[in-house]
Amino acid sequence: MPGKKFIERTFVTTTGKKSQQIGVQIIGIDPLSGDIMSWTFNADGSHAIGIWMPVDGGWAIESRGVMANGMLTSANNIVTKIDDHGCRWQSVNRFVNGVEFPDALEVVSRRD
Fold first, then answer.
1. Euclidean distance between the first and final Cα of the chain, in Å?
2. SS3 of 4, please?
3. pTM over 0.90
4. Sign of CA dihedral 57, 15, 62, 28
5. Dihedral angle at the C-alpha atoms of 104, 15, 69, 22, nearest 10 degrees?
6. 75 burial class (0-12, 13-18, 19+ CB within 10 angstroms)?
7. Cα four-point dihedral sign 76, 77, 80, 84
8. Where do the structural domains in the chain lie, given as residue ranges?
9. What is the per-residue pLDDT across 78-110, written as a single tens digit (0 to 9) for each?
């Protein structure tokens, strides 16, 4: 990224052998608030913004977004480090258009 003020990561979500979602996430410090923030853009047109807060062993991310169909989303995402090449991610307190959804199953992410 220009100026090295932000980190960009590309991700692919897979289930079995099938790719389900491709996206880009940009992470950096908001100069106004000083918060670590993320902006996520998915291939289907959905997007989200997150505010990152350090917690024991990882990060808690307060996320708000819009699905490809225009529905509003919110969730608290928890990322915990496994080792230098992996982490666990779980989405809790999830809402779509104000309707509560069950917590997502924990996902393990590994870096290639």
1. 21
2. helix
3. no
4. positive
5. 110
6. buried
7. negative
8. 2-110
9. 999 999 889 999 999 999 999 999 999 998 887
